[in-house]
Amino acid sequence: MRMQRLPLRVTLPLGLALLMFVVLGVSVWNALDKRLGQLNQQARTDLLADTVHLARMIEMGWLSSRGLVEADLSGMAANPRVETVLVLDDSGRVMAAHRYAWRDRLVTDVLPGFDLQRFNRVKQEKLPTLFSLSRDGAHLAAMQPFRLPTDAQQLRSRRQGVVYVGYDLTHERQTMRAFVFKARAPDLIATLLMIGLLGWLLHRQVASPLARLAEAADSLRSGRIDVTVPEQGVQEIAALAANFNAMVHAVREAQSSLATSEERLAITLQSIGDALLATDTGERVTLMNPVAESLTGWSLAEALGRPVAEVFVIENALTGAVAENPLARVIREGEVVGLANHTVLVARDGSRYHIADSAAPIRNAEGTLQGVVLVFRDVSEEYQLRAALANSELHFRALANSGQALVWTAGLGRG
Questions:
Q1: Which of 15, 66, 86, 201 is the most buried (most CB within 10 A)?
Q2: pLDDT confidence of residue 1
Q3: Are 272 and 265 in contact (CB under 8 A)?
């Protein structure tokens, strides 16, 4: 199925709008990506700082100032971005949490999907570990190992627990997106206004003048040569309109000249005393003058397009056999050919005319054969005069021969 083509007044503004929206979209995407990157980087920094701070607080005051540690944990949990705060011993049991009900429970019970392998690795290290819990980076978590309080028999504890802090940045990311889009709203409005203005200018200066040119071209193709277009629009289109008007003027002048030439040719053909008949290379009649119409008995309207052998029928006057049509020889040989002597033209009504003619090729400027023109005339009267003269000459010769016999006989009698 062929796709319908949209007009230029639609495609230009639409293409421009699409381009500008793509540019604006890329700009918004870059701005949003930059803002979200900054937010994510700041959140990572704060998450590591909170995790390390809580771990140090536990190491220094879990036994002596536990209330302060839990107050610090509660204050951290009050942060809107904090999702989870856990203090785990070396077995993964919750020592303290932002939810009191989670205490003394295994971390795998309160946080399904908790990665125990990572927990065991972090216990053996000293530096914090930060990782993402979701593909979009909206959920982050960090673990920081710390030394558990010593037993009475130990001077320095070798057991290490882990502080686990999780951030949920979903709300902040949504807020950041809303901020970016709101900040870009003036750009969007300006873009829409610019698209509307440019669309109007394109329609007025490009699409409408081109549409008028297309309509004028269709009118010219249908035969109207009085069409003109206003020379409006941008410089190139105005110049195109001016050239179109000049072309139409040239076509009018050429058509007028052609009409004058055709009229002159028609008058010339009407005035020629000899019969004239023209054919194309397929030996079909293309032109006849009135003399040819009179001799053949065919009008031009009736003969036009017919085979010339049907219109121009010739015979040998002595034998009555069909004579060779000279047009076929001209097309075949490309040279001027004359009729044989004693040729009779048989008209449509059966009338017979002794004719003399010649056929010549019609060639274009490149020398290509375009057809054949046949010029012939009625020589019946001349033929009758020649026949009468020949008969008179025979009669005179017969009389002369008889006179000499009489003179010779008379001479013998006298002797």
A1: 86
A2: 47
A3: no
Task: Using pLDDT thresholds of 50, 70 and 90, give the confidence band for residue 199.
Answer: confident
The answer to whether 243 touches 235, Cβ cutoff 8 Å, is: no
The b-or-e profile of 331-358 (16+ CB within 10 A means b, else e) is beeeeebebeeebbbbebeeeebbbbbe
Block residue for tokens 């839990």? 70
Q: Quick one: pLDDT band at residue 259, thresholds 50, 70, 90? A: confident
Give Cβ neighbours of residue 242 (< 8 Å, ≥ 6 apart). Answer: 231
**Residues 394, 396, 397, 403, CA torsion sign:** positive
| pLDDT > 70 fraction of the chain, expressed in percent and rounded | 88
Separation between Cα atoms, residue 303 and residue 186, nearest integer Å: 79
Q: State the pairing for strand pair 94-97/82-88.
A: antiparallel
Phi, psi dihedrals of residue 226, rounded to the nearest 5°: -100, 10
DSSP symbols for 295-323: HHS--HHHHTTSBHHHHSEEEETTT-PBP
Which amino acid belongs to residue 9?
R
Q: How many CB atoms lie within 10 A of CB 58?
A: 24
Q: Which residue has the tokens 């990782």?
A: 131
Helix (H) or strand (E) holding 412: helix 380-414
